[in-house]
Amino acid sequence: MRHQILIPVLLAGFVISCNSENANKTTGDSTAIVKTDTTTMPTKTVVNTSDCYGYTKNRDTASLKLNIAGDELTGELSYKLFEKDSNKGKIAGELRGDTIIAEYTFDSEGMRSVREVVFVKKADGKLYEGTGEVEEKGGKTRFKNKSALKFDQSIVFSKADCK
Predict the structure, then answer these.
(1) What distance in Å separates the CA atoms of residue 99 and residue 155, rounded to the nearest whole number?
(2) Which site among 9, 42, 126, 147 is 20 to 30 Å from 62 CA-CA?
(3) What gap in Å lies between CA 147 and CA 95, rounded to an integer?
């Protein structure tokens, strides 16, 4: 009689023991920590380009050379406007989609000045210079409100050969 009671108890203990081992294995597997190797993440490809643009209308001329590396740009800009002092200098800034926002550091009338310039590249491939209300801050001339700029063809730069 003891054997009749003891065998089912032992059998039940064995079944419970096997199930708890499987449960631990499942729990152990489902809580495993997965490490991701981020040292081989893809890097952003930077495209370097140089483009030149020119403007001529009546007796006014201007030229612009841009060196673009990713979203950053540098270049040279010069204006020769009829009956006004010419100026020539360097620009440095960034490309935001189809918009160039840069600082133009130039010499005119024997003085060095810095002013903000903004250009928009339109579907025709030309660069339209923005105009708007300006203010001086920290020795630099800046636009008061870039969202209010007008690109109404005051100076429109067309693609040109680089010299």
Answers:
(1) 15
(2) 147
(3) 16
Pair 106, 88: CB distance under 8 Å = yes
Give the whole-angstrom CA distance, residue 77 versus residue 90.
6
- Residue 69's DSSP bridge partners are 48, 72
CA distance readout (Å), 80 to 17, 39, 48, 116: 92, 51, 28, 18
Whole-angstrom CA distances from 112 to 88, 108, 143, 144 are 10, 7, 19, 21
Q: Torsion-angle region of residue 3: left (phi > 0), alpha (psi -120 to 50) or beta? A: alpha
Q: Give residue-wise pLDDT tens across range 52-99.
A: 999 999 999 999 999 999 999 999 999 999 988 889 999 999 999 999
Where is average pLDDT lowest: 32-46, 70-84, 147-161?
Answer: 32-46
Task: Kindly write down the DSSP assignment for every residue of 12-33, as one continuous string.
Answer: HHHHHHHHHHHHHHHHHHHTPP
